[in-house]
Amino acid sequence: MLVQLSVIEQRYQAVLAVVQDGWKVTEVAARLGVSRQSVHAWVARYEHGGLAALADRSHHPSACPIRSPRRSRR
User: Fold this and answer.
1) Are 10 and 22 in contact, with CB atoms under 8 Å apart?
2) Where are the domains positioned within the chain?
């Protein structure tokens, strides 16, 4: 049975792979399909703020409002 991990858990495992297990940031990034800059940011955020700092900080709305179609000008 597959268990889907939360975003925080995935980031925490990435951080641990770098900090504790000695993986290279580029290896972790490639394995997760993210940029190395993201992994560096997660490590820094974890070191400064612990597990809570790994939460998603996106400012995008969770749902995009329905937009009316544009009317062409004639």
Assistant:
1) no
2) 7-54
* Nearest residue to 14 (alpha-carbon basis) of 73, 33, 60: 33
Structure tokens, 23: 């993986």
Q: Is the pLDDT of residue 71 over 90?
A: no
C-alpha dihedral (25, 29, 32, 33), degrees to nearest 10: 180
> Which structure tokens are listed for 51?
């597990």
The one-character DSSP state at 2 is: -
Tens digit of each residue's pLDDT (9 = 90 or more) over 8-63: 999 999 999 999 999 999 999 999 999 999 999 999 999 999 999 998 877 666 66
Region of 50 on the Ramachandran plot (φ > 0 left; ψ -120 to 50 alpha; else beta): left
Q: What pLDDT, on the 0 to 100 scale, is given for residue 56?
A: 80
